Amino acid sequence: MEKRILLTECSDDMGLIAKITNCCFNHHLNVIRQDQFASDEDHKFFMRSVLEGDFFYADRFLADVKSVLPEGAKVRLADNHRRRLCILVTKESHCLGEILMKTFSGALNADIVGVAGNYPDLSELARKFNVPFTLVSHEGITREEQEKRMMEVIDRLDCDYVILAKYMRILSPEFVNHYPLGKLINIHHSFLPAFIGAKPYQQAFDRGVKIIGATAHFVTNNLDEGPIIEQDVIKVNHRYDPKSLAKAGHDVEQMVLMRAISKVLDDKVFIHGNKTVVF
Amino acid sequence: MEKRILLTECSDDMGLIAKITNCCFNHHLNVIRQDQFASDEDHKFFMRSVLEGDFFYADRFLADVKSVLPEGAKVRLADNHRRRLCILVTKESHCLGEILMKTFSGALNADIVGVAGNYPDLSELARKFNVPFTLVSHEGITREEQEKRMMEVIDRLDCDYVILAKYMRILSPEFVNHYPLGKLINIHHSFLPAFIGAKPYQQAFDRGVKIIGATAHFVTNNLDEGPIIEQDVIKVNHRYDPKSLAKAGHDVEQMVLMRAISKVLDDKVFIHGNKTVVF
Amino acid sequence: MEKRILLTECSDDMGLIAKITNCCFNHHLNVIRQDQFASDEDHKFFMRSVLEGDFFYADRFLADVKSVLPEGAKVRLADNHRRRLCILVTKESHCLGEILMKTFSGALNADIVGVAGNYPDLSELARKFNVPFTLVSHEGITREEQEKRMMEVIDRLDCDYVILAKYMRILSPEFVNHYPLGKLINIHHSFLPAFIGAKPYQQAFDRGVKIIGATAHFVTNNLDEGPIIEQDVIKVNHRYDPKSLAKAGHDVEQMVLMRAISKVLDDKVFIHGNKTVVF
Amino acid sequence: MEKRILLTECSDDMGLIAKITNCCFNHHLNVIRQDQFASDEDHKFFMRSVLEGDFFYADRFLADVKSVLPEGAKVRLADNHRRRLCILVTKESHCLGEILMKTFSGALNADIVGVAGNYPDLSELARKFNVPFTLVSHEGITREEQEKRMMEVIDRLDCDYVILAKYMRILSPEFVNHYPLGKLINIHHSFLPAFIGAKPYQQAFDRGVKIIGATAHFVTNNLDEGPIIEQDVIKVNHRYDPKSLAKAGHDVEQMVLMRAISKVLDDKVFIHGNKTVVF
């Protein structure tokens, strides 16, 4: 018997859970775990059902499910194949390092198919783990040209997700729109919406906060404003300067990014307007 | 339209979710939220379904649900009535105070129908909130006799739950067995199973731990071993002595106990052997 | 032998710790705990020394300390007297309730000398604890007039600190400037600087954050921008609406406010520009 | 000007802080940060002073400090040299991986001079970072013999600290006593003293706890009973099985171990009986 995950997203309606689980039952698919959420403010329905059974007639099953749902429903049957990740970096190694380590240990059900950076600093680290590194420098060329080259590199890798693992470049709308919403995942080094923009640790120092944090989010055209997947914080005090804040923050950043990637790879994250539903 | 909560507990089986949600659908009851869990180790199935609709034929609905479930299933339809709480105390006021405050502010969907203590210290506090206080002293009488009197006090109050809000008496099997499992809720001042037994803050001090915590659990005949509902911790350091550990721990105790009570009152807690399923 | 706390604040300089501890030694005052901090960015020195000994000649001791410090130094010898708190409220009871409970239990070394609110809702609660409540309604009068009346109420109470325990009024510069910096302590229901201004829980809901929090800070003329004393957060998810976010947030608010008050009452908080040093 | 750290440990006495800071002052050494602690229960005094100045006459300075302290005082002047770490492992890579990454990025002021394991699994990972790996298998030989070989490997490396990064072997008293107290640092995968001994995640699952954690501690002859340096926890729920508990726990383990190592390398940790003082 195989396990697959049914992902349903549609307008909310009476009896949706019954209708969908009925379809599963009729196709002899056992629901071994089911999470659902309906939003009050805009009446959207989200459901993630882990199914066990025989998926020979997956297409017919999906068609059946779709037929009982409101118009415009999105239904998908995810399987367990290893996803392909492309990692974008600048100079800081901790997020890339953690992803490499988790892939190396087998804790992450994914392959890193390539790392690309606007500086060459992390080339050595990628190569230690036999991951190809491509330098896409921004020096001496326009932002437009650098992004064009970066997109070519990414597109050649045929990846499922692009992880911005402390890639310290502001992305143009052209770059962002080149990818479907949900494909680009960023780690921001503050508990957004606090300290949007550049130098969040300097901002945190200047404001004298007693907690700092990190936010993993999908990338949209509004800088640091995309749907938040995961956040966490740590406590700090007056003894921290911007440099030690950054050092302490690195642990949160790598942990928050990893948790977000894990949730996305487990198909536990739905995008709901500018928010997420994370089961 | 009314909202009620269907609570299902049975042996796990193929298609249970479909069968139950189908019953709901047939009775024109919309499932607006559903959480379920099936245990791997002993194949138990737990489900909590928030239903919306007309419950005129609740009995027939429950019978229908039961008819599709494996033998021995427990099914219950919880409503939203204010539960009756009896609080047992000794001398420390913080847990009782927090429950009184939350009831006063309307944050807790419950009434405190009585407070009973083996010391008179908290009588004044209870009376401030017009809650009757009964002194059941242990002085000059046997444990057996004191417990007998306490049970009489509790039983006269006709309560849904008995909250041991820092009631510093070890309960005999007779006392514990006098109540159904799930009716007695205790707060223990350590992150169990660390520091079982007396003086956990002294134990924590002696061991030099860097975190202390609290555990809310259902009471069973094994001291400090009942099903855990909620736990939390705070960080401490070498500067804390047993007294300041206790003081810092009070905040965690009252918070953990309140969260546990809230979960129980929302019918989100199932007992599963010596553990809990908390939705 | 008596215990008192020496609080020193001045420009940083070579040998300050030695000079001050020397003064203590010469006056036969034993330093049983000492915390100090010197800021890198503006070279300020802060020290808190818990002294044990005989304080008959406290004035001479302070003069001696002052004589070895740079010009403009502030030196103070705090004692252990119970501070007088005035609490301002609107309608929400949880913060006031927690302060009343902690005072009642003796956990807080302070007396609540009065509660004043712009609504009468919490009058009953204050009176339960024999604390006088004064209604200073804003209805039918100008902001200026309401603030004038409030200041009169506060000033009559002769208090050490004014705690804004969910007092939902924006304060004018006249009101703020009427008190020395450090006397007004506010609890804000977000992890500032996120969600400055009104309705932070609605803002948090709209932004889809995965953590919410609270911030206790000294009040300055910049709304929600004063020196932060204490912050904490809790995790939330997509299931929370603005109302349940607020409910969950209340626990953090009361805890963060209490911790801030405790630190201030223990003379552990220095104001350093728009930040704090909290030992 | 140089920075060095004066570490003082002795019986508590009147005026110790003044005496020591005076010595610093007389030697033109500025105290830029000072943390001290005196224990109530056994009257020990611990102080860490960050000094800035000229250390040509360090020996004379230390002698002067010692002359003003009670008999039996331990005084040490730590410098900033990169410490040498030897890492012991079995099969799990996450702790070793994190140490390697932090060393690689320069976040840790230390060199890993060797990795030794009782299985060959992590040899490849160590070699990626050009760290020599030595296999010291336990197969086919006595415990005594295996430990003897391991001690030879460690001793040859001439290291400052031996980090047991998930080295899943119980150490004999001979092994432990071969090293000074404070040299061996272990990470235990539970919030000790809960779940002492083998399989803590299975124990946590069986007990149904709602938090799991990790503990970094110095190794003594009492298994899992040595002085605790750092602890932290994460929340879990009924959905976790022993395997997913372990996976979630790995993040806490590597973080807690790294924080402990950092604190030790910064000379912020004193051993105080079976506890620690961590500044």
Structure description:
Four copies of one chain form a homotetramer. Helices cover 33% and strands 30% of the residues of chain A. Chain A is an alpha/beta fold and 279 residues long. The first copy, chain A, folds into two domains: 2-78, 2-Layer Sandwich (Alpha-Beta Plaits); 83-278, Formyl transferase, N-terminal domain (Rossmann fold, 3-Layer(aba) Sandwich), CATH 3.40.50.170. In chain A, the strands form three sheets. Chain A has a seven-stranded mixed β-sheet, sandwiched between helices. Chain A has a four-stranded antiparallel β-sheet with strand order 2-3-1-4, with helices on one face. The interface between A and C is medium-sized, with 32 and 32 residues.
- Biggest sheet record of chain A: 7 strands, mixed
Give me the strand/helix succession of chain A: EHEEHEEHEHEHEHEHEEHEE
Number of helices of chain A: 8
Report the principal-axis shape of chain A. Answer: globular
Quaternary organisation of the protein chains: homotetramer
For the largest sheet of chain A, list the strands in their spatial order: 7-6-5-8-9-10-11
Biggest chain contact: A-C, 32 and 32 residues
CATH topology of the largest domain in chain A: Rossmann fold
- Helix content bin of chain A: 25-40%
How much is the radius of gyration of chain A in Å?
Answer: 21 Å
The name of the CATH superfamily of the largest domain in chain A reads Formyl transferase, N-terminal domain
Count of individual domains of chain A: 2
Q: Kindly report the average pLDDT value of chain A.
A: 96
Question: How far apart lie the N and C ends of chain A?
Answer: 24 Å
